[in-house]
Amino acid sequence: MIGVMPKAVQVDAATRRARLAVGALFLTNAVLYANVVPRLPEIRDSLGLTNAALGTAIAAMPTGALVAGWFAPVLIGRFGSARLASWGLVALAVATGSIPLAGSWGGLVAVFLVIGAVDSVVDVAQNSHGFRVQRRYGRSIVNTFHGMWSVGAVTGGSMGAIAAGLGIGLGVHLPVVAVVFAVLAIVAGRQLLDGPENSERVPSMSPGPVSDPPLAPEVLADPPRGGEWGGRRLPGSVSVWLLAGFGVLAVCGAVVEDAGGSWGAIYLRDELGAAPAVAGLGFVGLQAAMTVGRFAGDRIVDRWGQLQVVRLGGLLVVGGLGVALAVPTVATTVVGFAVAGLGVATVIPAAMHAADELDGPGPGIGLTAVSWSLRVGFLVSPPLVGAIADATSLRLALVGVPLAGIVIVLLAGLLREPEPRPT
Fold it and tell me: Does the model's pTM come out above 0.85?
């Protein structure tokens, strides 16, 4: 079912403060690990790791997220989304600040496992509270929160690159960042909404989410057994294949994002000879372009449609990283990551939206399936790229990024605009 926002209303000062606080939580969530990304080469070298070993350690984060994500609804019910998001970010800051204490590959895996587990719970909690605030506004504001996450990623990546360029040790840099942003999370938590999690929900007779409009009796009497997409009723098997296609789209988006986050700094430093302060700019460029794409994405999709925007995004990924790998210089690589970031900005949201709009699997099942596919992509990509890099070169391993862009172009046709459902 499609949730319908109530008519926009006047909001009070407490709600406006809560909106700012949720934005601060999203920013903090991104800043913490983004500070680590430009310093991954130092972490690898200080522990004497190969690229494959580093990639496997990084993969511990999505592994922890896959396991811990199931507990988020229970924890929200027990502690509330406000407390869980705020104090969860404090725990995430402590875990991030302890990376310099890892001491070995096993220690790094353990720290990354905790970071991934805590981050998955925080992500659900902050989004859940963001939707509470959105219901009070009576209009969509959640894209702003995700835009703030991108701003945090750019800010954190820039901070990490500057710290690396100034020669600030990991044992000073990461703990200081952890303390500063843990305090910000606590202060923001004091401005979040009080009351039960369902306080802002509008009661409904719909069998879907409580914010959905009630369905006509004839629709309730004959629910779809397959799915409905592009105005056509689909058999169940076709719905499964469509859902799988949306999942592959999300995985391709994960491959592009992970290339900048896990390997951009290492590629620029090791294979192109970039200075430490410059090596982090690949990740920063990708995240900055994604930020622009996310803030502008809603308006562009409204005008051109998801299919055309995602197809163009895939072409940007192919062109950006394809040219960067074909002409391997520091400048072309930084620009290439930025172009790829702009291209991938709307791919994952489009895949999630399409899965959620696919009628038939059941409330939330489509979105959950794509979310899990996304986490699997982040789990598999780092060790796979690392293994290929050790066997050949990182430049050859990154060819998988433009290949992912080609798959995005080919699968964009699945993103037909669904017709409105009867209410």
Answer: no
Per-residue pLDDT, 11: 77
With CA atoms as reference, report the closest residue to 337 among 277, 265, 263, 285: 285
pLDDT band at 211 (very low <50, low <70, confident <90, very high): very low
Task: Note whether 8 and 139 are same-domain residues.
Answer: yes
Q: What's the domain range around 251? A: 224-418
**Tens digit of each residue's pLDDT (9 = 90 or more) over 349-377:** 788 767 766 755 543 456 567 777 777 88
* Range 147-151 average pLDDT: 85
Joined together, the tokens standing for residue 207 give 């069998």
- The count of structural domains within the chain is 2
C-alpha torsion angle, residues 336, 344, 240, 143 (rounded to 10): 170
Residue 238 shares a structural domain with residue 159:
no
Please check whether residues 163 and 176 belong to one and the same domain.
yes
Crossing angle, helix 281-304 and helix 330-344, to 10 degrees? 30
Average pLDDT over residues 74-83: 86
Same domain, yes or no: 204 and 269: no
Interatomic CA distance for residues 17 and 11, integer angstroms: 10
The last residue of a domain, from among 222, 240, 255: 222
- pLDDT top residue among 69 and 177: 177
Q: Look at residues 261, 267, 239, 281 and name the one whose alpha carbon lies nearest to residue 344.
A: 261
229 beta partners: 232
Is the domain of 116 the same as that of 100? Answer: yes
Q: Which residue has the tokens 């859940």?
A: 128
Are both 349 and 398 inside the same structural domain?
yes
Helix, strand, coil % over all residues of the chain, rounded to 5: 75, 0, 25
Of 10, 20, 422, 308, nearest to 192 (Cα)? 20
Q: 275 and 206, same structural domain? A: no
Residue-wise pLDDT for 9-24, tens only, equals 677 899 999 999 999 9
Enumerate residues 6+ apart whose C-beta is below 8 A from 243: 355, 358, 361, 366, 369, 370
Pair 201, 231 in one domain: no
Does residue 423 lie within any of the structural domains?
no
* CATH number of 329's domain: 1.20.1250.20
Rounded CA separation 360/246 (Å):
15
pLDDT tens column, 267-291:
998 889 988 878 888 888 998 898 8
